[in-house]
Amino acid sequence: MAILINAQAVSAPDDPRVSLLDLLREQLHLTGTKKGCNQGACGACTVLVDGERVLSCLALAVQYDGRQVTTVEGLGAPGDLHPLQAAFVEHDGFQCGYCTPGQICSAIGMAAEARRGVPSHVSPDLEADAVDLTAEEVRERMSGNLCRCGAYNGIVASIQEIFGEAAQ
Predict the structure, then answer these.
(1) Which CATH number fits domain 83-167: 3.40.50.300, 1.25.40.10, 1.10.150.120, 3.40.30.10?
(2) May I ask which residue range the UniProt record assigns to the signal sequence (predicted)?
């Protein structure tokens, strides 16, 4: 069995009880993905699996055999940041930075959902082909990612710069 993590094939753990989060952090030393609550309530552990956001603390690593997992380390590199990473720097979308990797991965997955027309609780048109990422939409869709520092205004501004109405 192999899981593609940041485009690298990695053997699934022998122990089927190992979470995807623990595989990433403890065995592969990809420490960008954070263990916050370890209960799926804070979003700090969010990664992308085949482009969709997943709470890695709630996922068993063996479930992802043959799938593509992308962590924050797989999005950009020093000197070549992903556009959303650069926007977080520009808009002060972080303070302590603990939640930032999960926020960024979640935002990328969320933007893909909006492009596919997946509605949220605040979407005005439930049958639209795509959803405009207004500030209200972004706040609703990112509500599963908590920031104890309260950097929400910078987070929303960063996401809107890259994926919002002005970026369309």
Answers:
(1) 1.10.150.120
(2) none
